[in-house]
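TA notes, week 10

Several of you asked for a full example with nothing omitted. So below is the full record: structure tokens for the whole chain, then the designed sequence directly under it. When grading your own attempts, check the secondary structure regions first.
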């Protein structure tokens, strides 16, 4: 596993999920005067791990969370862990399933990444691959938006997506991209080892990465706006993959 710089986990549910996981946590910050079942559970879990708990004013938490909705809780974490490509394959093998991966090409919005991780966890995706540069990483906003799913879906951060795509293909994975022109996504059969490529919010998939895709998928639209939010499009495609892999 590789680690990155320090960060904060904010929000009650993400905090509970982190405290129940193996994530390394340095300190727990609770807003002074707050009392609820969720806060009591967080304090209990923190004490079980023998973590330092600090009661701080709301203004302190506002500053830590960059004025996001922290719900009176922040965890100082040593680092978010990034998986390796081998870790992703091992996760699929652990579930005795063919790999089902996501490749996110320079996604920039942390809310989109968090939402995609949440959907990926729900649909049994075995891992997500993101680029090291020009893309959002695993931040506190991503963690909060994922509502704890960040603790269950391994994310690999790689230097070169094109080289990684070629490596996946060498290891028997079929790559499916998304484009305005392609096969109707409702016809996609995601059985076998597959990776779904989701492009940047504005530019889509880079031309070099697109050349490595075995097939392009499209979401038909009949309305006036001919595009969908990246996380919404990803959710539709992920669940088509789920449906074809787990038929009724």
């Amino acid at each position: 596993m590789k680690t990155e710089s320090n960060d904060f986990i904010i929000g009650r549910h993400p905090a509970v999920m982190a405290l129940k996981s193996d994530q390394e946590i340095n300190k727990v910050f609770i807003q002074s005067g707050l009392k609820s079942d969720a806060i009591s559970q967080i304090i209990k879990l923190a004490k079980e791990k023998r973590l330092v708990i600090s009661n701080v004013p709301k203004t302190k938490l506002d500053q830590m969370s960059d004025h996001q909705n922290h719900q009176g809780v922040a965890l100082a974490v040593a680092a978010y862990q990034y998986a390796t490509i081998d870790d992703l394959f091992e996760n699929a093998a652990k579930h005795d399933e063919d790999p089902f991966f996501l490749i996110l090409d320079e996604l920039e919005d942390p809310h989109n990444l968090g939402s995609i991780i949440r959907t990926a966890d729900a649909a049994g995706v075995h891992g997500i691959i993101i680029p090291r540069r020009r893309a959002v990483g695993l931040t506190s906003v991503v963690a909060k938006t994922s509502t704890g799913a960040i603790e269950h879906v391994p994310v690999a951060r790689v230097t070169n997506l094109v080289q990684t795509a070629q490596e996946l293909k060498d290891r028997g994975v079929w790559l499916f991209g998304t484009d305005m022109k392609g096969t109707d996504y409702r016809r996609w059969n995601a059985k076998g080892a597959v990776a779904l490529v989701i492009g940047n919010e504005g530019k889509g998939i880079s031309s070099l990465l697109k050349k490595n895709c075995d097939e392009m998928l499209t979401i038909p639209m009949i309305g006036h706006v001919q595009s969908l939010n990246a996380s919404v499009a990803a959710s539709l495609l992920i669940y088509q993959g789920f449906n074809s892999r787990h038929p009724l």
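Confidence is low (pLDDT under 50) at residues 1-5. Use that as a sanity check on your answer.
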